[in-house]
Amino acid sequence: MQLGFLGEMAPQIRLVEESLAENLKGEGIQEVTAYLLQGKGKRVRSALTLLAAGSFGPLPPTAVPVATAVEMLHLATLIHDDVIDGATTRHGLLSLHRRFNERISILLGDHLFAKAFVLFASVGNVRVVRTMANVVYEMCQGEIEQNLNCYQTEVQTEGKYLERIGKKTAILMGESCRVGAILAHAGRAMEDAMYDYGYNLGLGFQITDDLLDLTADTERLGKASGSDLKSGVVTLPLIHALKAPGYAGRIRELLRPGIGDTEVAEARELLAAAGSLEYASVMAEKHLRLSKEALVRLPEGPNRNLLQKINDFVGKREF
Amino acid sequence: MQLGFLGEMAPQIRLVEESLAENLKGEGIQEVTAYLLQGKGKRVRSALTLLAAGSFGPLPPTAVPVATAVEMLHLATLIHDDVIDGATTRHGLLSLHRRFNERISILLGDHLFAKAFVLFASVGNVRVVRTMANVVYEMCQGEIEQNLNCYQTEVQTEGKYLERIGKKTAILMGESCRVGAILAHAGRAMEDAMYDYGYNLGLGFQITDDLLDLTADTERLGKASGSDLKSGVVTLPLIHALKAPGYAGRIRELLRPGIGDTEVAEARELLAAAGSLEYASVMAEKHLRLSKEALVRLPEGPNRNLLQKINDFVGKREF
After folding, report:
1. Residue B3 predicted with pLDDT over 60
2. CA angle, residues A66, A68, A74, in degrees to nearest 5
3. Which CATH number fits domain B4-316: 3.30.70.100, 2.40.70.10, 1.10.600.10, 3.30.450.20?
4. Best of A129, A141, A146 to disrupt the B interface by mutation (most B CBs within 10 Å)?
């Protein structure tokens, strides 16, 4: 269990872990899926679905398969993105395409996508399927836009950044919450409150993630730090610094293919001096606050308290 | 239009072509999707869905989006399979990962999967989604099994081969027909007849495809011939020859990584002499006959006649 901050719901998350293992076993790819499930994923998205689904009464029996499918979608996109981005590590392990090969990564990603939709469809609610198909579509668009916009410093704005990380990260977290409310038949107002909580949590999470990519060391992060900078992904601190007089010129020079740790370190210094790291941190806090405010619209109870704890965890995480 | 054998339904197939173009445009990948849609795909699977859906009365409005989504699934699996198999050409063009790169292929495949499920979910019928999610799952399993079983001459049997090509090819063709009947609310008996027609058509199609990979020249095929043999994929003629006294030994020797055109030509001679090409041809005919027999259970009319024509086309194709 890697869910210290969610110890209270360990039994439920264990259901998801078991369901993941059960749904991925004995299918010719045992060794690969066993490796995948060793990774230190925190299963946050499936926790969101379970907590949302259980916020309005007893946990509906559809919640575990849907939460499992949500996690599968997340894993599938990580596996394909790691191939696309050439990532070397993930969740503290060698990335799957490095440990095995790219063919296996493509196949396992597709397998997880397909299995996820088998599970989504199994609960017989077409809104769940429609919602999650749209999520995958938006995530692909986010990844495509990220790839197209590498090194494109001119076209980047804070608005476009938020839209892109919305697609890449926040929509999945928002909809992971919403489908829980859908399964619980909680009504539109509750669904929307869940979505607002999860979407803003996702924005806060991704802004923090992008910040940590610049500031945390590789060992704590579980993946190479400075990787966004090295691959030309323009994140919020950079967008801020590109408008800062006295910093923009040098930052623009540093944003080029083939830079190494020296340039990453220099960029980090400049981003700190320009107040850009601080700015991103304030923006992450802002979205986490919006997320927290959405919780007020939800019924009081242990699940809401746990959703609050996840929010606290995202705000405090340093890895 | 590449659908000479289906000229009578050209207007309907054009709806799918337009819907494909419409659903894939203006999304940051214009150049890539334009290239994809240049390929000489015959749109057989979407034709099956349209013909099935229109077999029981006027074409339901849900048929075009579902037929479009069926074609997208097919294209997505081709794109990913081509990366996995290292294919150089497809539909008479350079394969997408050769023309662009593997990252683009992974992204576009995922994009097509996602968009397909958005369209499947848009018609509001959970059985359609469940059916097609299962198809993708089985197709992934088929591709995984094909990869695991390369060069494994000991474990191959005719039964396993049929099961594998069932997953890879025939289930999609069967379910492409069945969803048409589902959309037309034609009832289980009609759904099953449609599936039996499409599934056996798919088996006949794939056995022929595997045979042509050994016998047709590269130019007519639109992809490199002998590619299965070169990559160790054990198809029906090989399985037959591996049981033929006087041939099995040499065939087994030829089935090794790194063989070239000389060995392919020798294998072709041996397979002809052993009657293995003939055997596969007879098996293809058998399944096409089963497919044709299922048509008798369907209502008479122009759509049934066109389904018959597709069956005739598959039986006669030489490329």
Report:
1. no
2. 105
3. 1.10.600.10
4. A129
